[in-house]
Amino acid sequence: MAYYWYKAFHLIGIVVWFAGLFYMVRLFVYHAEARQESEPAQTILTKQYEIMEKRLYNIITTPGMILTVAMAVGLISTEPEVLKSGWLHAKFLFVGLLLVYHFWCGRIMKKLAKNENSWTGQQFRAFNEAPTILLLVIVLLAIFKNNLPLDLTTWLIVALVILMAASIQLYAKKRRQDKEKLAQELAQEN
What we know:
The protein is mainly alpha-helical. Helix content is 84%, strand content 0%. Heme binds at residues 10, 91.
């Protein structure tokens, strides 16, 4: 019965952790773009994003990560023989990359608060695609284990994820260009 409790809370932790990571970097996008606003909007927005980032990271994202990892340890304790599985070693690698991403977000948050970050909103949008790819790989490894299919269907799914990520980037670029065009038109009218 412990296995099912560990698994349930492991899944809950994953959902919370990823929700936090996805939203965290979205806040970074807005924070970086707030630097382009005029005063007093720039100061007001920057302070608000700093508060939101800190609360999200400390109250939601990090506890989600801790719950995920703790419940994974619990799961392994109920089935220690799983440690011999190659798929789990691969999953550990990708979870390790996700942990690096998590702590890197914490570092970025601190740099943004000190106004020492030079990344643009567009760069943060691209950075926000990393957990999507990691989530895809981790889930596929967890579901298929050593039987990960590498057939046409799998590659089509991978291509779809890449296409979605590229579409998001192109849409953001179009929005930025439209905003710049509108600003130029307004400047010409004045």
